[in-house]
Amino acid sequence: MTSPTTDPVAAILADYPVLILDGALATELQQRGCDLNDPLWSARVLIEEPELIRQVHEDYFAAGADVATTASYQATFEGFARRGYDAEAAAALMRRAVTLAVEARDAFWSDPAHRQGRPKPLVAASVGPYGAMLADGSEYRGDYGLGEQQLMDFHRPRLKVLLEAGADLLACETIPCQVEARALARLLAEEFPSARAWISFSCKDGEHTCQGEKLADAVAELNEVEQAVAVGVNCTAPEFIPALVAAAHGATTKPLLVYPNSGEHYDPEHKCWHGHADANRFAEAARGWHQAGARLIGGCCRTTPQDIRAVAEWARPAAGH
Q1: 272 known ligand binder
Q2: 235 annotated to bind ligand
């Protein structure tokens, strides 16, 4: 068994009160003219316009993010195969997702002016749930009808590629159900013991995962998994975050992470968003999440570098934000 490596999250939290995550990747790619109406979603840009992904990572670092989350959420062997990419080509695209983030991080950090009052940023390889591969919205429902072993078999090859590509940790995110979190935790503990990951659930209200299990139970089950360096919630309406943080805080000793959506609401029938985002309001809410116990804070769908900059202004004022 490989000896566990240093926990990169704990190393930053030892010196800083908040580890600032990035925000949405897809939202920024659409702002730059990318059409993401595709089962591959932002993974499509890995094929067509990878330079745009690097630019988005750079923008988040400039805004104050301590983490770049890679464009691999929807990058799976099965999804690429449907587009005619064999396993070798699919693995190369997954590695590209990590490389783009590493290149953006290293370029940013090479400027001494960027090092004032902040840690060297991390690269987190995004691992979306099984439902993201289906591209039918089931990551917001769970209930795949698959067992733990089947989910381990699905995730195993992608985890291997992403870890070998040079990411600092994995971002196992938008997990809708305990069985999938359990499958990921077992894979990490049994087959990738030196890996580090955060595991983040999608939730439908202030108490339950999207499948309907209690978040407190889901995070408690991960408490003894050494490879899981943080647990929490993402891709969830921000109004549910205070109650979810409170529930998780009492159930685990691990650092809590939250990166909810912007607060706008998606209309799946017309495929559009309603409501207005407000970076100052998001940042003020984020301050409350931190006071409630969250240590890793960022944004998910529809959040932007402006939101992350506004969080950094109170979380890391010494860095000049």
Answers
A1: no
A2: yes
* Tens of pLDDT, residues 101-158: 999 999 999 999 999 999 999 999 999 999 988 878 888 888 898 999 999 999 999 9
In a domain, 3, yes or no: no
pLDDT tens digits, one per residue of 194-206: 999 999 999 999 9
Tally of structural domains, the chain: 1
Instruction: State both tokens at 172.
Output: 């196992």
Q: What is the CATH number of the domain that holds 147?
A: 3.20.20.330
Q: What is the mean pLDDT of the chain?
A: 92
Please give the residue range of the domain that contains residue 279. Answer: 8-319
Place 4 in a pLDDT band, splitting at 50, 70 and 90.
very low
Residue 197 phi/psi, 5-degree rounding, is: -155, 155
